[in-house]
Amino acid sequence: GNSVTQMEGPVTLSEEAFLTINCTYTATGYPSLFWYVQYPGEGLQLLLKATKADDKGSNKGFEATYRKETTSFHLEKGSVQVSDSAVYFCALSDITGGGNKLTFGTGTQLKVEL
Amino acid sequence: GAGVSQSPSNKVTEKGKDVELRCDPISGHTALYWYRQSLGQGLEFLIYFQGNSAPDKSGLPSDRFSAERTGGSVSTLTIQRTQQEDSAVYLCASSLQGVSNQPQHFGDGTRLSIL
pLDDT for A73-106, tens place per residue? Predict the structure, then answer.
């Protein structure tokens, strides 16, 4: 079956620090990969996506590259801000694995301090 | 434009009661999904509707859970004889089509608390 593994949190960084949140996946077919973000008290929002190998998704200064050889989709940002404090979820969607449902990682809480 | 709308935003009920949760997807989106977010289990898929096809119910945890989607738009998730372990945030999402590269757009969820 499909699964997503992401690094344990919480991650605490100072403002302007470099961020990496690791995500690896297992899928039976050719998945699309997503990062969703959940700000405090809010719902899930799509942050970025990549639909095939070597695609790079980017949004709001965040980037992630679909690496088929390492089955990874690590999230990076060069300089985090306090407003980036949230929970980040890596997810995959694989139609060959049983429909279009998303399989999520456990989430990584990010806290950015001044 | 309007996003996915869920109601109520919060629901507190006694164990054993039935509850109904409503989801209004983005206009024109043919695919609709229900997920559950709980502390112990993370984010779990419950059920998926695509157009007029039979729904994928593979994630429903027990026969106390059911869902319907009327007219290809609004969906209702029903939990009968609620138990304390049903306490969670229930999230609805919709996508333009039921294909894997289409992102799902989420509502703010219904926080369900079973006393």
Answer: 999 999 999 999 999 999 998 776 445 789 999 9
List of chain B residues whose C-beta atoms are within 8 Å of the C-beta of residue A31: 100
Disruptive mutation site among B50, B101, B102, B106 for chain A (greatest number of A CBs within 10 Å): B101
φ/ψ (deg, to 5) at B72: 70, 15
Please report the DSSP string for B80-111 in residue order.
-S--GGG-EEEEEEEESSSSTTSPPEE---EE
Q: Alpha-carbon torsion A59, A34, B9, B98, what sign?
A: positive
Question: What is the per-residue pLDDT across B35-83, written as a single tens digit (0 to 9) for each?
Answer: 999 987 789 999 999 888 889 899 999 999 999 998 879 999 999 999 9
CA distances from A92 to A27, A60, A103, B29 (A): 8, 21, 5, 20
Dihedral (C-alpha) A10, B85, B77, B115: value to the nearest 10 degrees? -110
Give the DSSP H/E element, type plus range, for residue A97: none
- Backbone angles phi and psi of A89, in degrees to 5: -120, 130
| Ramachandran region, residue A90 (left: φ > 0; alpha: ψ -120 to 50; beta: rest) | beta
On chain B, the residues whose CB falls within 8 A of the CB of A45 are 106
Residue B9 DSSP one-character state: S
Question: B48 has which bridge partners?
Answer: B33, B56
